[in-house]
Design brief:
By secondary structure, this protein is of the alpha+beta class. It has helices at residues 36-44, 48-56, 92-101; strands spanning 2-8, 15-30, 59-67, 72-79, 116-118. The protein has one domain: Alpha-Beta Plaits, CATH 3.30.70.
């Protein structure tokens, strides 16, 4: 779903003249049993270079929630546009993060997390 956010115009610090379209995206991943605290610990210490990569790719307002009963992780993020994040798999930093996380999550052969997009069925601003 696309949302409108008020942005700055022409770079002169004036608010509200231009609107920026952001997309919200949600997805699910799977944590391995017994890895809940380790997953949180690793994300509490997220590498600064990983934060920079995500922000440079247009990802913001990113949260991950854990369903402790099923060990399903739910990610929700805002993306600058529909292609935001499309080049992240090519980043050496992202590939290193995937390798770091592969022992505690379900992953694909390239170490990326198995991730399933979710359809938004309701939103309230």
């Amino acid at each position: 779903m696309k949302i409108r956010l008020h942005g700055r115009n022409s770079g002169k610090g004036e608010i509200g003249a231009r609107q920026e379209i952001m997309e919200r995206a949600a997805f699910k991943m799977k944590l391995k049993p017994g890895c809940e605290e380790e997953y949180k610990r690793r994300h509490d210490a997220l590498w600064p270079e990983m934060t920079i990569e995500l922000q440079a790719a247009g990802i913001s307002d990113y949260s991950i929630f854990l369903d402790r009963e099923t060990l399903t992780l739910y990610g929700v993020q805002k993306k600058a546009d529909s292609t935001s994040g499309s080049k992240l798999p090519d980043s050496p930093v992202v590939r290193r993060w995937w390798s770091y996380m592969k022992d505690i999550m379900d992953t694909n052969p390239d170490n990326s997390p198995v991730s399933t997009p979710l359809d938004e069925v309701f939103h309230l601003d």
